[in-house]
Amino acid sequence: MTENKRNGRVTKLAAQGAKRRRNLEKIGGAVRSGSGRDFMDQTVAAASGVADTFPKLLLKHALERPSRIASREKEYGIWLSYDWARVRAEVEALACGLHTLGLKRGDRLIIVGDNRPHLYWSIAAAQALGAIPVPVYQDAVAAEMQYVVEHGEARLAIAENQEQVDKLIEIKAQVPGLQTVVF
């Protein structure tokens, strides 16, 4: 299984964010405040100032040690490593994609999945936009998930796999505020 297929839930959203970023760079335009690109514009502040948030810490590490290992994950008996530069790129692309979908400061983002690097990249992307990540354990049954989504007043959700998407679709009728599920 190729990495892009394995990471299919992130690839489409990341591609949307990367395309948006390239288009903006072509025309030399600035991105509105609160966009995923603002996350990367904090680079100077993160490098020279106090890294007082997780996104700023991520940037600081990406600048100071881009080729060092940020995280590892074992899949099918093989260790996969992600360096700080890759993590930064993934988080930036996710943040741009989420912004394109309408996620903004103060919004809540439901994130359902196993403890894997992609889950944490989604959390960092939400935080970079000023949104509030709401992780939900992947073993939660639909009724438990409904409670969290409803009380969290989330409009967007990121799901790790089809099982999580199915649970979110099952509760969608009871939680009309949930508009978009990214897989």
Q: Please, how many helices? A: 9
Structural class: alpha/beta
How large is the radius of gyration?
Answer: 16 Å
**Biggest sheet features:** 4 strands, parallel
Q: From the structure provided, what is the oligomeric state, counting identical versus distinct chains? A: single chain
Number of strands: 6
Q: What is the N-to-C order of secondary-structure elements (H for helix, E for strand)? A: HHHHHEEHEHEHEHE
Q: What is the residue-mean pLDDT, rounded to a whole number?
A: 81
Can you tell me the residue ranges where pLDDT is under 50 for at least 5 consecutive residues?
1-11, 23-34
Shape: globular
Strand order of the largest sheet: 4-3-5-6
Helix % is 40-55%
The first-to-last residue Cα distance is 17 Å
β-strand percent reads: 15-25%
List keywords for this structure.
alpha/beta, 9 helices, disordered N terminus, 183 residues, four-stranded parallel sheet, 6 strands, two-stranded antiparallel sheet
